[in-house]
Amino acid sequence: MNLRVFFLELKRRRVYRVAVAYAAVVFVIWQSSDFVLPALGAPGWVSTLVVILTLLGFPIALLLAWAFDITPEGLKRAEGVGHAAAPGTRRGGAVAVFVAGALLAFVAALVLLFPRGGPTLDRERVVVAVFENQTGDPALDPVGRMAQDWITQGIARTGLVKVVPTLEALRSFQHVEAQAGALGAAAGVRAFAEEAGAALVVWGSYYRQGEILRFQVQVSDASGRAADLVATLDPVDGAAEDPVGALEVLRQRVMGALASLLDPRLSGFTDDSGSPPTYEAYLAFVRCDELYIAGEIANSVEHCLRAYAADSTYVLPLLYAAVSYSNLQPIQADSLLRIAARAEDRLSRGDRLWLNHWRAYLDGDYAEALRLAREGADLIGGQNWHYTVGDDAIYANRPRETLEASARIDPARGWIRGWVYYWDNLTKAYHMLGDHERELQEARRGRRQYPESQQALRHELRALAALGRVDEVHALLEESRGLPGTRYRYVEHSRRAVAELRVHGYRGAADEIIERALDWLRARLPDEGATSALRRRLAITLYLAERWQEAGEVFDSLAAEFPEDIGYTMGYPGVVAARLGDRETALRYDSALAALDTPFLNGTNTYWRARVAAVLGDRDRAVELLRAAYAEGYKHDIHVHRNMDFESLYDYASFLELLRPKG
Hints:
CATH superfamily of the largest domain: TolB, N-terminal domain
Low-confidence stretches: 81-92, 113-117
Number of domains: 6
CATH topology of the largest domain: Rossmann fold
Radius of gyration: 31 Å
Helix content: 55-70%
Shape: globular
Structural class: alpha/beta
Strand content: 5-15%
Mean pLDDT: 85
CATH architecture of the largest domain: 3-Layer(aba) Sandwich
Number of strands: 9
Largest sheet: 7 strands, mixed
């Protein structure tokens, strides 16, 4: 058969029609699976399987179209070359739908019949619940938290058994309590175990008898289908006015029970960390914890420091306060970590790792921070450590490791359920790897979990802009105006979309969006006045719109108002001067940035110098300065690749190699 006859035969047998019909059916399957599969509770691998099978089905559909006819009498082998199709013969859509439907039925069978079960429970991991207050006196509610925390700390200090950290356990407990009430029933214990990912659950309650508080404790094993009670401990009594003294006895009883279940060495473990903190200190720390979970960071820090002031031997609150300070006030965070380090022997192994991790983080040593996070994930496990691995891996330019760590976390369980930034790390990792289709898929999963979140919308917007889906970008920007959040979210989203569109080659769309954002800001000037909040956003938006002179004037006013901000006083003035062709002034700001010796800059000043050099056209110097910034502790993150000041480097080999993911 010559080539001309072959193509005529393809047309006669309607193979072309099958190809088009199959592509249309598969497109519908791919689009719908993004919504249907998560709703069915299908594992993540099913989405990948759908794509692979439908791609493999394409040549099968073409072969079937070539070889067979669908007739009123059923499936028949096709006639040879030159024969006309019999009346009633069908191909095209029928063949395509048949093949795609068969593949989809196979996937559906896997989803419905494959035993998914519940979450995996670690049989050697313990979680301690908040003890239930049965006294009838709400003023004694904090005692249940105190019991949970002191038992957890005691188990953690042994280093012999994995235990869910207090804060992680508390968030899991609060969710289960809100859904199912107290843990008195086996179903509640089982639900708590699943939330925390631990098979052994320590739980209990306390009652008041006159001036005495009586604690009752049980241990359940949830590794089977139900939560089996494996130990009931003798009651422990303490003074109602100051129950702290009973906590150490309670802890020793629990460790004795766990010794028979996990490791006999627990019963003989001697804890030289001292007695529990004072009741006043504990009450303040309980409040610190509650505020931290609620996102009230400033108030949380205040209560943590109050706890330490009430009992200077109680160093754990300092660690919490330091973590809260770490991004906004690194000098204060460092001071608190140094104080906590003096009493490091009073911390559990996990808290010591946490302390050293945050010291490395503040120093900008993300490789060391990542190493410590990996150690925490291996030794202690749990969502918090796996999330921290993923977070540090982004900053260390290892997005594949972020994906591996994220895969160990169920975003619908435990404390991570309320943490939209899980999706930030996941989508950033795919963005850094250039897989924007998968980035968009995960961003939309995050938006289904957080439909009202501006942060979740930002993840989807970033992926759409990178893909050049301009109409959807415009639609999402309009949607952002109606979501809860600060009034300037629309402008902030617009700026990020513009940066992504520019770097991916959609300059016209970017220019249109930035002009709209400028109009939006200017329309608010008469009513709001030139507030610092508005001027900050106006200055950066003018810069993105390439209104260099106007932007420079606003930056100058901000520099006078915020003299401690090197971006306003030196960074932006330097790049604006470079944009305006004033090389001498730009280099003067470069020298001022180089001379800075402020603690915890972590390469920020050197990063600004790289931007100035890139705008001036000194490409080799810009890359070397950017490399130096990373060495000084500047975070690897996605904003670098889309920064318009580096446009002269977008096709520069050494710049691309520097940004290339290393793991």
